[in-house]
Amino acid sequence: MDGATHASARRAGLGKTAISANGSIHLNSRIVIDDEFLSCRSSVRRFRRGEVIAGAGVLVDTFARVHSGVVSASTMLPDGREFIVEIIPKSGLIGELEVLRRQTLSLEYRAGSNCELHFFEGRLLRDMYASDPCFREKVFSRALARISELELRIIANAASSLQSRLASTLLRLSAVYGKDAANSGDELIISQNDLAATLPASREKVNQCLRRLRESKIIDGGQGKIRILNRKALEACANGAVSVK
């Protein structure tokens, strides 16, 4: 499916391969899973790129840790376009805030690549939250950090050119992929549809910007892969100091 999911699949809730699945809103700052969770019994599930893990509006009582691969969290804009709020890397958690609040998922979660997730019972998280004041403080601070980061992204998107936004997004995704020891962060595995949804912008305009960056030897790649060749030049584009034409 190359990362694309039809609207009917988005409304269906959990994907067929996910039984009681997961989800959450989080950006780069998230609750860090503690070592004691890793010794708890978990359910391991694997998803192929593009498969829906959990749909918005679903009430769940499990949270999950991304063991390998990446997961995208998205919503639908009023004009019908998909907006990918976050791409969650290896070791990231999904579903923790909804489990704590006993709320339905507000975003759809989809495999951004072939990935493996380890699912845990929600009561483990709630028990720690109830018994550990330090953990409660961590949850609160992470939630505030997420809100702040999302606000900054929205403001930056409103004030920046598409080229600057694209360069900033590629750098942000590079940091996400770089969390995996097997990836230096210079190679991003993301479809053009997903990249456009992350900005968000039309695929045609994003392709034009990507072509200019390739012609300037700042990036390279194709078929769902982008390789960063000149990080300093990409940073200059993100800051608006350089405009590639």
What does this structure look like?
It is a single chain. This protein is of the alpha+beta class and 245 residues long. The chain folds into 2 domains: 41-143, Jelly Rolls (Sandwich), CATH 2.60.120; 159-237, Arc Repressor Mutant, subunit A. It is built from 9 helices and 11 strands. The strands form 3 sheets. It has a 4-stranded antiparallel β-sheet with strand order 1-8-3-6. Helix 4 crosses helix 5 (133-159) and helix 6 (162-177) packs across helix 9. The two termini are 32 Å apart. One of its GO terms (cellular component) is cytosol.
Summarize the entry for a quick read:
This is Crp-like helix-turn-helix domain family protein. By secondary structure, this protein is α+β, with helices and mostly antiparallel strands.
Mean pLDDT: 79
Major β-sheet profile = 4 strands, antiparallel
Number of helices: 9
CATH architecture of the largest domain, by name, is Sandwich
Helix content range: 25-40%
Low-confidence segments, ≥5 residues, pLDDT <50? 1-35
CATH class of the largest domain: Mainly Beta
In total, the number of strands is 11
What is the N-to-C order of secondary-structure elements (H for helix, E for strand)?
Answer: HHEEEEEEHEEHHHEHHEEH
Structural classification = alpha+beta
Domain HTH crp-type: 160-232
GO molecular function: DNA binding; DNA-binding transcription factor activity
Domain Cyclic nucleotide-binding: 45-146
Pfam families: cNMP_binding, HTH_Crp_2
